[in-house]
Amino acid sequence: QKEVEQDPGPLSVPEGAIVSLNCTYSNSAFQYFMWYRQYSRKGPELLMYTYSSGNKEDGRFTAQVDKSSKYISLFIRDSQPSDSATYLCAMSAMDSWGKLQFGAGTQVVVTP
Amino acid sequence: NAGVTQTPKFRVLKTGQSMTLLCAQDMNHEYMYWYRQDPGMGLRLIHYSVGEGTTAKGEVPDGYNVSRLKKQNFLLGLESAAPSQTSVYFCASSYSPGVWTEAFFGQGTRLTVV
User: Fold this and answer.
1) What is the C-alpha separation between A103 and B5, in angstroms, rounded?
2) How far apart are CA A88 and CA B53, in angstroms?
3) B34: Cβ–Cβ under 8 A, 6 or more apart, which residues?
4) From the CA of B104, how many Å to the nearest CA of chain A?
5) Cystine design at B48: which of A27, A55, B33, B75 (Cβ 3.0–4.6 Å)?
6) Chain A residues touching residue B49 (CB < 8 angstroms)
């Protein structure tokens, strides 16, 4: 069983809808939780970063971490065609030298 | 522009050939990482370095070697390429573990082994 599970999709939504993405994990030592956005044939770019539990909001993006359930979420409000990409969740433990454990990535398609 | 640069961007190798992938960063980052990305698998860590002259194994190190002779460069070597090493390779660097706003990925190297 993978340490981080993420539904690969694809997830297709109409423009303006809310996109809901999530990951589950099994390692209780994870403390840093990130969401990366990856456009086709590009490298991942950091979208949201959360330390420990709680919510974080940045514009149209909201990240949530529930450590008790080992579950993290990313919500994209008012989705745009430019949000079409693969979204990767990633996690790291405190003493892991910054090594990231990634989910498989969810492909999101926002249709005009 | 500051960032992480990978060379080459594309390469086709024959089984048994060798090659070196170069990762260069100009942000004075201590930590550098090599990942591979395969469909349905996400990114998996191959090797990493916590400073000049240091390297360590990641999750999938077999068939790869690395060197960090200069702080700004992290080299990934394939001594005898195999079709199973067909993948997209990403290099990343960070200022320090936990400072994720200062972590960056390169654009990737697409490697095909035939």
Assistant:
1) 24
2) 31
3) B21, B23, B45, B46, B47, B48, B58, B64, B66, B74, B76, B89, B90, B91
4) 7
5) B33
6) none
- The residue type found at A79 is S
> Does position B1 have pLDDT exceeding 60, yes or no?
no
Determine the average pLDDT of the residues in B36-52: 92
Measured in degrees and rounded to the nearest 5, phi and psi for residue A66 equal: -120, 95
Question: Is B40 buried (19+), middle (13-18) or exposed (0-12) by CB count in 10 A?
Answer: exposed
> In this structure, are residues B97 and B31 in contact, taking their beta carbons and an 8 Å threshold?
yes
Q: Do residue B90 and residue A43 have CB atoms under 8 angstroms apart?
A: yes
- Token pair in block for residue A62: 């909201």
Distance CA B60, CA A54 (A): 32
A contacts of B4 (beta carbons < 8 Å):
43
